[in-house]
From TrEMBL:
Domain (HTH tetR-type): residue spans on this chain: 20-80
Claim: DNA-binding is one of the keywords in the record: yes
Name listed for the protein in its UniProt record: DNA-binding transcriptional regulator, AcrR family
Domain of life of the source: Bacteria
SUPFAM superfamilies for this protein: Homeodomain-like
Keywords on record: DNA-binding
N-terminal signal peptide: none
DNA-binding annotation, residue ranges on this chain: 43-62
Length: 203
């Protein structure tokens, strides 16, 4: 009799822990499929088989393939987002805006080098490429730094323009097809940022 309330109280917490583990398992399976076979391999059936669960479990967690890809993007970008919002400078708060912007681009390029296939898979999804939550967070962050640096011009459009060279599909093409070193791509990003922020628009 005394153990019943304890078991009932523990059950929701156990269910939450199981849900977190299952979600991570499914996202790891999806990322592995992208790395092994490419973006087209990321289907609900394939992820379920890879993770060793029923397809219904994948649908319950993510709703659709689009929801799965969105979650995969969030999962991949979490560390970068945490670093530029809360981490140490120059990527995080405490450094000059231009230095933070340069560090953001360098960190983003490094992320593409590490997880480019996953990021490109999401970019290939039309409904997620420009409207995903992580992209909106990045846009907001870049626009905030541009304003803090006193940059002139159309800030929202400048933010979009600065993010374009950081897209996974382009960076991966530069690395794999054009054989450009990561350092060269990152240095070009820094050069672009300093030109945009140091020269008044229209002059």
């Amino acid at each position: 009799m005394e153990t019943t309330p304890i078991q009932m109280a523990d059950q929701p917490e156990a269910e939450r822990c199981d849900a977190v583990r299952n979600r991570a398992l499914l996202l790891d399976a999806a990322a592995a499929l992208v790395a092994e076979r490419g973006a087209d391999a990321v289907t609900m059936d394939a992820v379920a088989a890879k993770a060793g669960v029923g397809k219904g479990t994948v649908f319950r967690r993510f709703g659709s393939r689009s929801g799965l890809m969105q979650a995969l993007l969030d999962h991949t970008e979490q560390e970068l987002q945490h670093a530029f919002m809360y981490g140490p400078p120059p990527l995080g708060p405490g450094a000059e805006p231009i230095d933070r912007l340069v560090a953001f681009g360098r960190a983003r390029i490094a992320l593409v080098d590490l997880s480019g296939d996953t990021l490109r898979a999401v970019e290939d999804s039309p409904e997620l490429r420009f409207g995903s939550a992580p992209r909106q967070v990045s846009l907001t962050h870049v626009a905030m730094l541009l304003r803090a640096a006193g940059t002139e011009g159309d800030i929202p459009l400048l933010a979009h323009s600065l993010l374009a060279p950081l897209e996974a599909s382009l960076v991966m093409h530069q690395i794999r097809a054009m054989h450009m070193p990561i350092e060269r791509i990152a240095d070009a990003w820094e050069d672009l940022v300093r030109r945009v922020t140091e020269s008044p628009a229209g002059h």
